[in-house]
Amino acid sequence: MNFNATLFGQLLAFVFFVWFTMQYVWPFILEALEEREKEISDGLEAASRGKRELDEAHQKKAEILEEAKKEAADLVNQANARANQLVEDAKSNAHEEAERIKVSAQSDLEQAAKRTKEELRSEVAALAVAGAEKILGSEIDRDKNSEIIEQIAQEL
Amino acid sequence: MASKELNSTDYIEHHLTNLTYGKCPDGTWSFAEVHGKSQVAGTEASCNISEMGFWAFQVDTLFMSILLGMGMIFFMRRVAKNASSSKPGRVQNAVEYLVTLVRDQVQDNFTADKNPLMGPLALTIFVWVFLMNLMDLIPIDLVPWIANGFAAPNAEGGAIHYFKVLPVADINAPMGMALGVLILIHYYSIKNKGLGGFLAELTFQPYGKWMAPINVIFEIPGFYAKQLALGLRLYGNLFAGEMIFILIALFFGGFFSSFTGVLSGIAGLALNFIWAVFHILVVILQAFLFMVLTLVYLQQAHEHH
């Protein structure tokens, strides 16, 4: 255990090594370290942001899907209602048409019956006149007896 | 490889003697003389170590510590130069682990406003002291044997007869570093508290200014003891470890001469292994402690009371 000038030699070497480390070693390694730490934390942040965005997108997708489903259901309902309406309309139209045809056919029928009646009546009048002529053996003056004929015809 | 002709006392003494180059009383510079001959073959020694006094250098201590320090900074510099944030190699990863460890220690123990010196200081202390401590795990006779031209220390001829490979087992190395820390503590104390504040801290505490003489008696020894202990702790631990290795090495003395020599050699091997494993802890722990305590003391130098 003998102290001597080695002490100061060691001190100088110590100072030199610390100075060298401070100047040429520590800052470079620390810089690389801190840069990487920053990159990693940035990366992690980006990842969590991406995850959040993905979650949001998933939620949005579900919402849109839900909306689309509702819309589609509405459309189907509307279409159904419209179809029902159309069927109903068609039914009532047909009904009306049928009614109208029935009515017009009836009136035609009535007219035809009337006309036939008229014809029959006039024919019966003529027949009656002809019959009366034969009975009377003379011609009946139509003009003179038209009143009677008319009357008969009316009574038929 | 303790030689048969050396007795145990000589062997231990040999391992505790530094290779010393210094100024003799007659004014000449030379290697020291031990047991009547110069420590280095082929040189003239004019005095022994104790006669040299202060102007002497432990060449082995300085050589090993500076060699290890140079290795450290070249290695670190290479890593620092190629450091990339995106593609760290294996070596960079290892160094970054170390830097992170040191940085965390700095952040935990040094809470004062940012001082750019603390990180590099702590890193240098930790790595350098670790490397120096690590020399304790080199087989104890290997480096002296190489230094002596692959010959036993008492062999005729040889080259450098004395060479201690463990710098921290020489009091000058740890105390030199502790001296650096002491200077920093004084510098930052005075810088941050002012000379008055620094002196007030030593004289007006803990009993107020009217008890200043008693305060000084309490504070001054405490203040310097901890700084002294910083170096002594490292020295003491590693010196003791080295001593145990030397004692264990004595078991190998008669390995080639007798049957009991072989037996004691085997016992020595087992002991050496156990002690070396245990010593790995000491090597790291002492380096770590030196770093942490330096940070704590410098933190105290930045604190205002």
Report on this model:
The complex is a heterodimer of chains A (156) and B (305). Chain A is mainly alpha-helical and 156 residues long. Chain A is built from two helices and no strands. In chain A, helix 1 packs across helix 2. The longest helix of chain A has 131 residues, at 6-136. Chain B has 305 residues and is mostly helical. Chain B has a domain at 62-137 and 168-302. Chain B is 63% helix and 5% strand. In chain B, the strands form two sheets. Chain B has a three-stranded antiparallel β-sheet with strand order 2-1-5. A two-stranded antiparallel sheet of chain B has the order 3-4. In chain B, helix 3 (59-81) crosses helix 5 (118-134) and helix 7 packs antiparallel against helix 8 (212-249). Chain B is globular. The chains are: A mainly alpha (156), B mainly alpha (305). Chain A binds chain B through residues 1-11, 13-18, 20-22, 24-33, 35-36, 39, and chain B through 20, 22, 49-50, 52-58, 61-62, 65-66, 69, 72-73, 76-77, 79-81, 83-86, 88, 92, 95-96, 99-100, 103, 116-117, 119-121, 123-124, 128, 167, 170-173, 175-177, 179-180.
Task: Summarize this entry quickly.
The complex is a heterodimer of chains A (156) and B (305). By secondary structure, chain A is mostly helical. Helix content of chain A is 93%, strand content 0%.
Any descriptors?
heterodimer, A: 156 residues, mainly alpha, 93% helix, B: 305 residues, three-stranded antiparallel β-sheet, 9 helices
General shape of chain A: rod-shaped
Strand content of chain B: under 5%
Number of helices of chain A: 2
Terminal Cα span of chain A? 171 Å
Describe the secondary structure blueprint for this structure.
The complex is a heterodimer of chains A (156) and B (305).
Chain A: H1 6-136, H2 142-155
Helix pairs in contact in A: 1-2
Chain B: H1 8-15, E1 20-23, E2 29-31, E3 33-34, E4 37-38, H2 49-52, E5 56-58, H3 59-81, H4 90-109, H5 118-134, H6 142-147, H7 172-203, H8 212-249, H9 259-302
Antiparallel strand pairs in B: 1-2, 1-5, 3-4
Helix pairs in contact in B: 3-5, 4-5, 5-9, 7-8, 7-9, 8-9
